[in-house]
Structure formats: C-alpha cells, structure tokens
Amino acid sequence: MANPINMDKAKEALNSFQEKAEELLKDGSKVEEILKKAEDAIKDVPGVGPVLAKFPLMLNMIRSYISKDYTVVSPKVIVTMLCSLLYLLSGKDLIPDSKPVIGLVDDVAVITAAFMLCGPELDAYAKWREEKGLTEA
User: Fold this and answer.
1) DSSP characters over 48-97
2) 3-class SS of residue 33
3) Angle at Cα 37 formed by Cα 32 and Cα 38, nearest 5°?
4) N or C: which end of the chain has fewer CB within 10 A?
C-alpha cells in the first residue's frame, strides 16, 4: 500500500507546532502532562511496533532534559520532539483519526519525521542511558 502522505507534509505539520513547543519547554510540569497524554495516545495505535520503537526513548529524553539530568542536547531537538507530540495530541490531522487504521498513518509519519530529524541525538541519549545503567526506555 502506498503511503498516503509524504515526509515533506509530515515535516511541515511537525514545524507548525514549533512556537507552542518552545513555549511549553519553559514549563516542565506542562511538558510532563503532554508526555503522559502522548503515552496514552500511542497505546491506541495498532500494529506500529518497530516504527515507533524509539517512542519511549524520545519521551524519556524529554523528561531527562526537563529534569536537567541530560542537557547535552540542543533545545531545538527537544522542541522538534515536542512538536511531534503536540501534533499527535492536537487532532489537527492530515488524515482524520476517525478513518479506521489509515487515520493514524499521519500521526505515525509525523513522529517518524521527528525520529529522522533527531536520530543522532536519540542514539546519543540511548548510549548515555546505557552508560548510566538506565537500559529500560
């Protein structure tokens, strides 16, 4: 089956939340609310397994940044990841979630775009967690 949206549109959707994500980054408690909502929302996405394997790592990286445990990452990276979560939770979809299965493709695409843009930083964070003995994502 062909992908109904392209990565350029996913990146555009991701970028549309930049201002809101930058504002959120100033308040750790609001970020934690977003992280919890995103964890709940992603549980409803069926059959995405390997595509979203880095999702828990991304959430933990944001948490570690907010708690100042891991600060060797650019705030722009954290903002990009927050943008993907805001998109996921916004209901402002390229494909309405009300369409069974296909409606979740855009959410997965936007999160995947964030993974692609932040891949090296996520890998560095995973290595840092491993060095600290924090292997559970």
Assistant:
1) -GGGGTTHHHHHHHHHHHHTTS---S-HHHHHHHHHHHHHHHH---SS-T
2) helix
3) 95
4) N
Question: Which are the contacts of 18, defined by CB distance < 8 A and separation ≥ 6?
Answer: 79, 80, 83
The answer, yes or no, to whether residue 1 has pLDDT greater than 50, is no
If phi > 0 it is left, if psi is from -120 to 50 it is alpha, else beta; for residue 68 that is left
SS3 content of the chain, % helix, strand, coil (to 5): 70, 0, 30
Regarding predicted confidence, which is higher, 74 or 8?
74
Cα 14 to chain center, whole Å? 10
**93 φ, ψ (degrees, to nearest 5):** -105, 150
